């Protein structure tokens, strides 16, 4: 079933339509991880009346863009053009999702490309470290796997598998949004505001440090450390307090991570927080990379910071600054129409009505340091650690990890 929405924005000279199909890599079946990534790519490689080349030529002849991407929770397909050409291009969305050609020759190309991409991805120790982290955090949950799949599964996916998956795809809920009124949908401004609902989750207090630790040996002079846990759904009332915490830790040069690791000690190549929007329990982790020489010191700094988050509330000045930076990030994310539409249709698919800037700021204002402290105790008292680096260093960090956590 396709539900249509529009955002009444007449200030642009271009139009964008973004469709969100519920169910992405989270509906990949066992042994076929990566099948929805292949299907998504295949959808945009020809539809009724167009083969791969004529579809590309038709879109490019109007200076338009067609994009697709697979997430853990859904598939996103969007088309963008100048307003005067939109009526000629918008019907392509319907053809792409309902009448794709799904040619076997194109399937073989996409499959080969997927395998090559996965292999290339494995060359990056940062990616390997993250994959290891979420495997121990999520175990057999769909979020434990990369949306692109794994090379072993993808190599076994057949053309018949894709045709069968498309039958499943056709029955999934679909949501489309545009700033162009031609889609004849419901204005999101008229949607009833749904209060966020708390979602409970099991806390892994019974896990030993050994079950919350993983490492892989790499031969570089770089050690990568990732530490965190799964948290809450985007539907949860806990989402915004965790966003304030993310802002405190990682937004800008005033962020706690930057000041500690870069400004004070100058020891990191890369650092930050990963906290994406998810319909289920989203991951929240601190990541950093340092030279092997600084790895043990960096881990001790991170451990001290982590314990401080568990036992000491943010000061009034810290939480005020974190809130202002968070509101600024939301404003920055509202400058791009593509981002606005993508975010809104994703939220709608999760059962959340988009809220106004005024309502958002009001909710952020209500968040206290105590709210954040309760969440750090709830979610981060038994964190999971993944390391990529020299084996000797990793084992030493493992020993310190067992003592500290």
Q: Which features would summarize this protein structure in a list?
A:
18% strand, six-stranded mixed beta sheet, Cytochrome Bc1 Complex, Chain A, domain 1, five-stranded mixed beta sheet, 405 residues, 2 domains, alpha/beta
Account of the 3D structure:
The protein has helices at 35-43, 52-61, 86-89, 91-98, 104-121, 125-138, 151-156, 159-170, 239-250, 256-264, 295-311, 316-332, 337-349, 357-366, 369-380, 391-404, and strands at residues 2-6, 14-22, 65-70, 74-82, 174-178, 186-187, 213-217, 222-230, 268-274, 283-291, 384-389. By secondary structure, it is of the alpha/beta class. It folds into 2 domains: 2-190, Cytochrome Bc1 Complex, Chain A, domain 1; 209-404, Metalloenzyme, LuxS/M16 peptidase-like (Cytochrome Bc1 Complex, Chain A, domain 1, 2-Layer Sandwich), CATH 3.30.830. The protein has a 6-stranded mixed beta sheet, sandwiched between helices. Strands 7-11-8-10-9 form a 5-stranded mixed beta sheet, sandwiched between helices. Strand 9 (268-274) and strand 10 form a beta hairpin. The radius of gyration is 23 Å and the shape is globular.
């Amino acid at each position: 079933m396709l539900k249509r929405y529009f955002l009444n924005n007449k200030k642009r000279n271009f139009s964008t339509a973004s469709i969100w199909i519920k169910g992405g890599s989270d509906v990949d079946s066992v042994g076929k991880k990566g099948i929805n990534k292949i299907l998504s790519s295949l959808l945009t490689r020809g539809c009724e009346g167009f083969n791969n080349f004529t579809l590309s030529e038709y879109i490019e002849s109007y200076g338009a863009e067609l994009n697709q991407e697979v997430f853990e929770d859904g598939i996103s397909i969007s088309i963008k053009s100048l307003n005067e050409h939109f009526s000629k291009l918008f019907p392509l969305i319907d053809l792409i999702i309902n009448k794709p050609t799904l040619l076997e020759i194109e399937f073989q190309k996409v499959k080969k490309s997927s395998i090559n991409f996965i292999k290339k991805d494995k060359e990056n120790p940062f990616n390997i470290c993250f994959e290891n982290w979420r495997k121990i955090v999520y175990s057999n949950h769909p979020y434990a796997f990369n949306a692109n799949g794994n090379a072993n599964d993808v190599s076994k996916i057949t053309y018949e598998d894709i045709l069968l998956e498309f039958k499943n795809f056709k029955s999934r809920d679909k949501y489309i949004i545009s700033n162009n009124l031609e889609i004849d949908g419901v204005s999101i401004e008229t949607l009833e505001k749904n209060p966020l609902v708390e979602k409970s989750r099991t806390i892994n207090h019974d896990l030993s440090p050994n079950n919350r630790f993983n490492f892989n040996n790499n031969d570089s002079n770089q050690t990568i450390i990732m530490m965190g846990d799964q948290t809450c759904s985007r539907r949860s009332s806990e989402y915004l307090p965790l966003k304030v915490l993310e802002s405190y830790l990682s937004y800008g040069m005033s962020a706690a991570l930057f000041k500690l690791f870069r400004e004070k000690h100058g020891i990191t190549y890369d650092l930050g927080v990963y906290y994406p929007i998810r319909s289920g329990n989203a991951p929240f982790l601190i990541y950093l990379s340092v030279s092997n020489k600084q790895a043990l010191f960096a881990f001790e700094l991170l451990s001290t910071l982590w314990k401080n988050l568990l036992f000491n509330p943010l000061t009034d000045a810290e939480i005020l600054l974190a809130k202002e930076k968070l509101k600024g990030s939301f404003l920055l994310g509202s400058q791009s129409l593509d981002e606005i539409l993508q975010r809104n249709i994703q939220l709608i698919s999760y059962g959340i009505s988009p809220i106004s800037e005024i309502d958002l700021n009001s909710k952020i204002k209500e968040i206290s340091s105590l709210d954040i402290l309760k969440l750090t105790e709830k979610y981060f008292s038994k964190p999971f650690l993944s390391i990529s680096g020299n084996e000797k260093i990793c084992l030493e960090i493992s020993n310190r990890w067992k003592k500290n956590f």
